[in-house]
Amino acid sequence: MKRNIIEIDEELCNGCGSCVTACAEGALLMVDGKAKLVSDVYCDGLGACIGDCPTGALKVIERDAPAFDEKAVERHLEESNRPEMPLACGCPGSAAMTFQIADGPSGPAPGKSSLSHFPVKLQLLNPAAPFLRGADLLLMADCAALCYPALHQKLLKGKAVAMGCPKLDDLPAHVEKLSRVISQGGVRSLTVVHMEVPCCSGFVRAAQMAVQQADAHIPVRHITIGRQGDLLAEGPVEI
C-alpha cells in the first residue's frame, strides 16, 4: 500500500540525533552516525521529527510501505526501555530507564535518591516513555535543583521530573516538547519549580502555554525557590 512515511537524506544528516528524541514512536535510530528508520511499521508518517532537524535531512514522502502498527510500536518502546538495549542515539542521556525507589513514609533515607527515571532533561525525554504515563510531573529549573537542599525528600518523591533553563535554553522548544509530554504521556498534574529571579519565572509561562497547546485539563502549581535554598512561595497556576 502507498502511504506517507519519513525519508532521510544521509548526505544532509549531521548525526545530531534531534530527530531520534523527537520521535515518540521510537522509529528512528542512530547507526554509524546517521539517522535511520528502524522499521516502516513504527513510522506514522506525521513527520513530528522534521521540525527538530537542523539540516533539513528529513521529509515525508509517499511510497509503498506496510501500515503503521500501533501495537508493534508499544512493544518496541517497551523493549527499548530495557537497560540492555542499544541507546537510541549513542548518547547515554537519551537512554530511558526507570529505578526502583525504596522510599519510607517521609521520603528517602539519608544519602538515598528519590529519582525514579532517566533521562531528566526535558529535551531528551521521549513523550511515550513508560515512566511518564499518568505521572505527576515536576518541571524544574536547573538552578532550583542545586539550591533546594530538600529536593529528594520534599519534591521528587513519587514524581517524574523534567529539567531545563528558561533563560539559556530555547523556551519555545521547551513549550513544544512539554506539550507533547503532557498530551502523549498522559501526565495528570504539573508542578513548576523555579528560582526567585525574574527570568526563571518564564517556566511558569511555558507551562501555561504547553498545557493550553496540549488542550489538557490538569492541575498546575508553582514553587518558588530562593537563592539560599528556602521555599519562598507555592500555589496554583491559572491556565
Question: Would you write up a description of this structure?
Answer:
- The protein folds into two domains: 91 residues, Alpha-Beta Plaits, CATH 3.30.70; 141 residues, Rossmann fold, CATH 3.40.50.
- The chain has six helices and eleven strands.
- The protein has a five-stranded mixed sheet with strand order 8-7-9-10-11. The chain has a two-stranded antiparallel ribbon with strand order 1-4.
- Helix 5 packs across helix 6.
- The protein is α/β, with parallel strands linked by helices and 239 residues long.
Give a quick set of tags describing it.
239 residues, alpha/beta, Alpha-Beta Plaits, Rossmann fold, 2 domains, 5-stranded mixed β-sheet, 6 helices
Topology:
Elements: E1 2-8, H1 18-22, E2 28-31, E3 34-37, E4 58-64, H2 70-80, E5 97-98, E6 117-118, E7 136-141, H3 142-147, H4 151-156, E8 160-164, H5 171-185, E9 189-195, H6 202-214, E10 220-225, E11 231-236
Parallel strand pairs: 7-8, 7-9, 9-10
Antiparallel strand pairs: 1-4, 2-3, 5-6, 10-11
Helix pairs in contact: 5-6
Our measurement of the CA-to-CA distance between the termini, rounded to an integer number of angstroms, reads 43 Å
| CATH class (first level) name of the largest domain | Alpha Beta
Listing every helix as H and every strand as E from the N terminus to the C terminus, the arrangement reads EHEEEHEEEHHEHEHEE
Task: Give me the CATH architecture of the largest domain, please.
Answer: 3-Layer(aba) Sandwich
Show unreliable segments: 82-90
Q: Which geometry do the CA atoms define?
A: elongated
Q: Which structural category do the helix and sheet elements fall into?
A: alpha/beta
CATH topology of the largest domain: Rossmann fold
Q: Which strand order does the major sheet show?
A: 8-7-9-10-11
- Number of folding domains? 2
**Fraction in helix:** 10-25%
- The count of β-strands is 11
Biggest β-sheet: count, sense, barrel?
5 strands, mixed
Helices, by number, come to 6
- Strand content is 15-25%
